[in-house]
Task: inverse folding
């Protein structure tokens, strides 16, 4: 997990180019989703974290976004994902 406040914009851009980051999450709500999610784009920088994989997000206690990850969210809601 990489906190947005801990890296500069240029470092973030490099990580995106190297495909080291695939998902973003809200630390307060503990929700992760796709980087192009409209809900995720609205969050404040201090609340944003980045993940290399779904597994990493789940290991950090985050749940799937109900907007951009509907299938994963339904599985989580039904108790199939921890």
Result:
């Amino acid at each position: 997990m990489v906190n947005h406040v801990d890296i500069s914009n240029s470092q973030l851009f490099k990580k995106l180019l190297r495909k080291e980051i695939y998902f973003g999450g809200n630390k307060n709500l503990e929700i992760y989703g796709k980087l192009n999610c409209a809900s995720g784009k609205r969050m404040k920088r201090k609340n944003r974290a980045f993940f290399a994989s779904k597994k990493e997000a789940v290991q950090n206690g985050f749940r799937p976004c109900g907007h951009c990850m509907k299938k994963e969210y339904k599985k989580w809601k039904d108790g199939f994902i921890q």
